[in-house]
Amino acid sequence: KFVKSNASGTSLYLLSHHDPLKQMETYLLTFKAGGNSEDFFTEHPGQEFCHLLKGELVLKLEDLTYRLLPGDSIYYNSAKVHSIVNETGKPAEMLWISTSGPL
């Protein structure tokens, strides 16, 4: 289910039924060339898991930078400052799973 797009052309799709009692949400993020995670990735209590399905993305996690290629995954505390950008001229797709607070 389409949720929203941001100004850079990144789109967010909910992959499961929304339920306020769930402890995690599953999404598909599609990044156009030059797209970013603005309006999607914010600091909050909980954890996040990202798995790159297609393309190449750069994830910044506080002072660290990771270049993700298809098949790469990353798991982190979502209270840390984090963002993603597609620095390539090709689209990218990422599975994003987020918890809303500590389990």
| Overall pLDDT confidence | 92
Gyration radius, to the nearest Å? 13 Å
The total beta strand count reads 9
The computed structural class is: mainly beta
Globally, the shape reads globular
- Helix % is under 10%
Poorly predicted segments: none
Question: Can you give a write-up of this model?
Answer:
- With 103 residues, this protein is mainly β.
- The chain is 0% helix and 50% strand.
- It has no helices and 9 strands.
- A 6-stranded antiparallel β-sheet has the order 1-2-3-9-4-7, with no helix packed on it. Strands 6-5-8 form a 3-stranded antiparallel β-sheet, with no helix packed on it.
- A hairpin with a 2-residue loop joins β5 (57-61) and β6.
- The termini are far apart.
